[in-house]
Amino acid sequence: MQVKERNRTENSSRRIQPGEDATELRSRLVEEFQDEDTRYTYAESFLNTRVAAQIKVLREQRGLTQEALARMIGTRQAGVSRLENVNYSAWKTNTLRRLARALGVRLSISFETFSGLLAEVENFERASLQKPAFEQEVRRGMMRRRK
Question: What is the pTM of this model?
Answer without folding.
Answer: 0.83
